[in-house]
């Protein structure tokens, strides 16, 4: 039930929805009555209490899970600008006049500046390092007088051309950041500068590890294909990816040349260097597989850390299941049914909205937008 309160605040009350699983419980925040467009971007505070979301109709909403209320803060929000500041009860957003604001959940403005329209941005916990991407998959460091290009090496691929965001994540220690879009190029970093406007096709569209200090590429993380989402662990030691072709790969930032491929949910791990005349089943290792539920898909729309840097979730396209992996292991640990109704943002190949899935690895909160309504579904890790 929803009841309206003053100052645009709305309170809700409901019982526990769904079952409490071995690892998960679905909180009472499956909100169907929110009169707003679908979520386009979202961030969760480290404490797990607050969620900031930007919606297709330009609403910016702050959700308080403890008080069970939500508050529409603006009706002029950039769709891809909701992001929680690491280590603070503060969030980042941009309005349609291109003003970027970092403010506390109580409304205190910590930083404010003009910037180009962002298609995703991140900021460090001390508010000193600011990175953003635009619709052409260019990446920028800083703002106003300190703004400079980090990546600008072609006009393709792009948001309009691929229908996908150029995802941007940074670790909690501000050591590395990661970009990911479409993985196709196989060239070496030494062969191509990230700043080369004379070429048409970018050499950095795939998963790339960057130094947050120098803003230079550290490694091209190879192995994915097609539309790819990737994220870096909070401690900065791991990068995890997943793509729409069903590939999922983990790398250690200390050894980026070594790839750990995730098993396919049904067929397992492909074994390299075997003779060519074996039965098809002999080419796959299934020794670590668990039973996969009907409706779980390898084709991945997003990945997200959920238990510090130790466990991550992989979200299948056109599926309401998520797979839990222990970081560094190729085998799924458990599958979670996130519920068939309302349909989640994972339905409809919405790679332009994979920022509508957000987690707090510190508190074990997962928040997900819905396919076509303005509510959110929130889940909490019970134990691992």
Q: What are the main properties of this structure?
A:
Methylamine Dehydrogenase, Chain H, disordered N terminus, five-stranded antiparallel beta sheet, 33 strands, mainly beta, six-stranded antiparallel beta sheet, 384 residues
CATH class: Mainly Beta
- Low-pLDDT segments: 1-7, 12-30
Query: What's the architecture, going by CATH?
Result: 7 Propeller
User: How many beta-strand runs?
Assistant: 33
Compute the number of helices: 1
User: What structural category arises from helix and sheet content?
Assistant: mainly beta
Residues in β-strands, percent: 35-45%
Q: What Rg do the Cα atoms give?
A: 20 Å
The mean pLDDT is 90
CATH superfamily: YVTN repeat-like/Quinoprotein amine dehydrogenase
Please characterize this protein's 3D structure.
With 384 residues, this protein is mostly beta strands. It has a single domain (2-381), classed as YVTN repeat-like/Quinoprotein amine dehydrogenase (Methylamine Dehydrogenase, Chain H, 7 Propeller). Helices cover 1% and strands 41% of the residues. It contains 1 helix and 33 strands. The strands form 8 sheets. It has a 6-stranded antiparallel beta sheet with strand order 1-2-7-6-5-4, with no helix packed on it. The chain has a 5-stranded antiparallel beta sheet with strand order 18-21-22-23-24, with no helix packed on it. A 4-stranded antiparallel beta sheet has the order 3-33-32-31, with no helix packed on it. Strand 6 (60-64) and strand 7 (69-74) form a beta hairpin. The model is unreliable at 1-7 and 12-30 (pLDDT under 50).
